[in-house]
Amino acid sequence: MGNIECPTCGVVFGLPDFYEKKRREDHAGFYCPNGHRNFFKQQSEAEKYKALYEKEASKLLPLREQLASEQRAHERTSKKLKRTEKRAAAGVCPCCNRTFSQLAQHMNTQHKDFMQLQGLTPRKQLRSGQEKVQ
Description:
Helix content is 53%, strand content 13%. By secondary structure, it is α+β, with helices and mostly antiparallel strands. The protein folds into 2 domains: 2-38, no CATH class; 45-133, no CATH class. A hairpin with a 5-residue loop joins strand 3 and strand 4 (37-38).
């Protein structure tokens, strides 16, 4: 049982522990034996931690949004790079989108491992002097 002093009249009175704990948590009013209304206005430990958690969570929200945005940008860039690598391995110029047999032949003979990494099979060779325009 805890002893409480009424801030209005100064009388000391007792409250059962469970009742005092409940009033400290819910901040509801209670009365002293002389009829003065009292309440605990200090934050409970749970309220302090909840406020701290919400404050820190609000700081992290912009960082999480920025991280998600950067991940999406990275994914787009990776897809674009992979597409360009596949096209170059197939003999397509990344600038003018034309297919050159010499580049395709070079990739097929000198860089078969790169072609396999890109998931490409060797292309049929174009006759020399011909270009395939896409």
